[in-house]
Amino acid sequence: MTGTAPLLEVRNLRKVYRRGGLFGGGSGGGPAALDDVSLTLRPEDGKVLSIVGESGSGKTTLARIVLRLVTADSGTVSVAGEPIMAQGGRTIDNRALRKLVQPIFQNPFEAFSLQLPVEEYLFRTAINLGDAAMRRDPRPAIDEALAAVGLSYSRVAGKGIRAFSGGELQRLSVARALIARPRLIVADEPVSMVDASLRMTIVNLFKELSQKLGVAFVYITHDLSTAYYLSDVMAIMRQGALVEFGRPEAILQSPSNDYTRALLDAIPTLDRRWSI
Amino acid sequence: MIVVDNVVAGYRTPAGLVKAVDRVSLEVRDGEILGIAGESGCGKTTLLKLLYGSFGDGLEIFSGRVYWRDPDGRRTIDCADFHRHWWEIFSYVPQGSMSALNPLMRIAPQMLDAGTGANRADMAARRARIARTLAELDLPARTQRLYPHQLSGGMRQRVMIGLAAYVDPDVVLADEPTTALDVVVQRQILENLVRLQRARRNTIVIVSHDLGLHRQVADRVAVLYAGRLAEIGSNDAVLGRPAHPYTQGLVDSLPRLGDRQPRQGIDGRPPDFMAMPPGCRFAPRCRRAIAACAGSDPDPRPHGSDRTAACIQLEEVAA
């Protein structure tokens, strides 16, 4: 691991979900969810990579492969210079992987159990992924992570998810991820279940953490506006392929693809009204 | 026109009354598209149910009145009787309704099934109207013969809008009609909806949390907060020059393409209906709140020619 290694490097990733089962009609392959996708986030380009696409674009499959929740058919993935997957096979064990890459999921109400106090997740992460000192006494690391997202242990202690709003739960998800001190956090649609008034507080938190703590983010979203606001590098996907990759300003000014233009035109912004 | 006159409405729960709509007055004007905005849990869907006269889930009007008046002003119908005029005067596209189609029936028979109580026009004429409506919504003719699972989400949502519109109601009420759809499909459906409205000259009320959507399609916009009406007025006034601090906060929190200036959300969350703060309900989250706000829960008052807003210190801010 060197300081100049790419924060994330994805090479020639392919994934086809096999059809099968009761009505699937045998084992024939469907369309490729990912069709030879390669991309790199270098430290000099910035810390936040957005992957924008609509349903069926393959953005979530890409996120899940980087988190190794889904196995690719072929291709390689490295995080901070460390290969985590090559030719569909794992190259490091799960504990090492989770210390490098942490997930944040779309629906915070489903990411935590209804039956467990939320602090359980913080302690388990510290005990499973922390170093010897953190395992002996997890509290300092938990306090630090909660402070980084604007929460405190006294606000959280003993409470279940019903005591929190969606925005607060998403902050907790971020705090839990930070406890592992990962190099990369992959957030899949992290604000689509959060009210519009609170979205920016979460998005701003990602920005702040990437700058203060140096952790890199992959921000998966269907929403070009927040992606533009947040990201240093932006990728646009469609039907399993990368159709656009570069700095957000450059993509906005001169989209190289018809689909990108259609996407840009379809965003209902407050600045201009469509002529219908 | 539908008139909502100082209405308090909501639900009885073991813990007490939940007034999801509290002292709200507004008009839905004939031939307009009215957008209803606000965060989740602010009373948007409850208000829409009042406009539809849908009381099946325990919704009650505790005081005030909701009624419909025909354009000539000769006939009024109280909302307790709206259900007798469903499909004829009112039709409703509920939230998540693209999952409401019967999976075992082809599209045309499902559409024919709708509104049989009110609209007994002969079958041939109704079939022709179904065909015309589906065409207006950019759906291919063969859609009629397909089952719901053979349609994409966008096509199913168009069928639901067609279902609500083909019987030619005066008012179509749509709850988050495009929330589950991709933006490119959303734009097509919103354009369909606006064209359909212009052709039929009916009234549409759209509930959505998405201010950008309202900016594109609405003639007027109402913003609800914690069951109260914060601001209502023309699209340009409310979304272009918001006067209520809540609307300003919502508008400010939306990132714009091409603009990376730091933007802030509104801290906190809407209050619990069981524990409303004294005075203005938005005051605890309001950046402009002053001491007097805790002692005053104002009704909307006119501000300029094309809006009313409920705040003791109104000030327009260019969005």
Automatic annotation (TrEMBL), chain A:
A Pfam match: ABC_tran
Keyword Cytoplasm: no
Span of the signal peptide: none
InterPro entries reported in the protein's UniProt record: AAA+_ATPase (IPR003593), ABC_transporter-like_ATP-bd (IPR003439), ABC_transporter-like_CS (IPR017871), P-loop_NTPase (IPR027417)
Superkingdom in the source lineage: Bacteria
PROSITE patterns reported for this sequence: ABC_TRANSPORTER_1 (PS00211), ABC_TRANSPORTER_2 (PS50893)
SMART domains per record: AAA
A GO term, aspect molecular function: ATP hydrolysis activity
Domain ABC transporter: residue ranges: 8-264
Alphabetically ordered keywords of this record: ATP-binding, Nucleotide-binding
Family per similarity comment: Belongs to the ABC transporter superfamily.
Protein name: ABC transporter ATP-binding protein
Species name: Vineibacter terrae
Source organism phylogeny: Bacteria, Pseudomonadati, Pseudomonadota, Alphaproteobacteria, Hyphomicrobiales
UniProtKB/TrEMBL annotation, chain B:
Coiled-coil annotated residue ranges, if any: none
Gene Ontology molecular function terms on file: ATP binding; ATP hydrolysis activity
Topology of this chain in the membrane: Peripheral membrane protein
The keyword Ribonucleoprotein belongs to this UniProt entry's keyword annotation: no
Transmembrane segments: none
GO CC, one annotated term: plasma membrane
InterPro entries xref list: AAA+_ATPase (IPR003593), ABC_transporter-like_ATP-bd (IPR003439), ABC_transporter-like_CS (IPR017871), Oligopep_ABC_C (IPR013563), P-loop_NTPase (IPR027417)
Residue span, ABC transporter domain: 2-251
The keyword Magnesium is annotated on this UniProt entry: no
Domain of life where this protein originates: Bacteria
GO annotation, biological process: peptide transport
Xref: Gene3D superfamilies: P-loop containing nucleotide triphosphate hydrolases
Record localization: Cell inner membrane
SUPFAM superfamilies noted in UniProt: P-loop containing nucleoside triphosphate hydrolases (SSF52540)
Keyword list, A-Z: ATP-binding, Nucleotide-binding, Transport
Entry's family note: Belongs to the ABC transporter superfamily.
Protein name: ABC transporter ATP-binding protein
Species whose genome carries this gene: Vineibacter terrae
